[in-house]
Amino acid sequence: MLNTIKAFFNCLLGILKNEKTMKINVIAPNPTPQEVGQPAVGERVSLPPTAPVDTTPLKSQYDKAVEQLVNLNGSRPWTWIVIHHSSNKDGITHEWDAIRNYHTNWRLDGGIITFQEALKLQAQGKVVIAPWVDIGYNFGISHDGDTYNYQVGRSLIIPGAHAINFNQKAIGICVCGNFMKVSPNETQLEMLVALIKYLMKQFNIPVNNVVGHKETYTILKEPIGTECPGDKFDLDDLRKRLA
Ligand SMILES: [Zn+2]
After folding, report:
1. How far is the CA of 137 from the centre of ligand 1 (A)?
2. How many domains does the chain fold into?
3. Which of 6, 71, 176, 197 registers the highest number of CB atoms within 10 A of its CB?
């Protein structure tokens, strides 16, 4: 009996000595909602008098976003900026992912086709378009539900695919929308201005080299081949905002 008691105390002493190195797992019961600061079911919650809001002016938020958006590493020496809208000939407005999907697939007359279809149509003498390496534009402003988002497109390292005879020298920006029907709204314009101003500064592009797609034809003294970016897009007003 005495030995048993001694052994017990020795064991206890050993445990106490090794206390610091002992790992103790404590399995606690799940905390109640109140313990983690959440209301219990059915409990009424009064909101704080003022909800926390980001008070940074939107314009500065766009400036910050643009700085993070643009990757200048290894960029070509761009000298122009060409503005587009995302409306097709048929008036359908396409959003960023749809445009990227279209540009990176085999296509004919505005529709995506399979490689097999492309081969067949080509054999029939149709002019099909092969997939591009990436979306034709360098940047975009998409309209996703209630929000507008900056989008990164084709790298600034390689020529674009958005305006004939301008792809080698012009950064292409597509504002998603149909500006034959409505004017771009203030959010779209402010986001666009922040992006263009940043690019103008980085590449030393003068304001007169910021043009709409249709204006590229006038500059080249060619018959105007597009309505892009739409009659309701006031390009002179855009340039005024950039000056
Ligand atoms: Zn265009």
Report:
1. 9
2. 1
3. 176
Quick check: is 11 in a domain?
no
Confidence of residue 22 (pLDDT cuts 50, 70, 90): very low
Does the residue 208 lie in any domain? Answer: yes
Reported as a single tens digit per residue, the pLDDT across 182-222 is 999 999 999 999 999 999 999 999 999 999 999 999 999 99
Please tell me the distance between residue 84's alpha carbon and the centre of ligand 1 in angstroms. Answer: 4
The DSSP bridge partners found for residue 171 are: 81
Helices and strands per DSSP (H, E), number in the chain: 7, 7
Q: What is the dihedral of CA 173, 176, 181, 185, to 10 degrees?
A: -90
Given a contact cutoff of 8 angstroms between Cβ atoms, the answer to whether 175 and 189 are in contact is no
CA–centroid distance, 213 to ligand 1, in Å, is: 5
78-134 pLDDT, tens digit per residue, is 999 999 999 877 777 788 999 999 999 999 988 999 999 999 999 999 999 999 999
* Cα-to-centroid distance, 176 and ligand 1 (Å): 11
Judge whether 48 lies within some domain: no
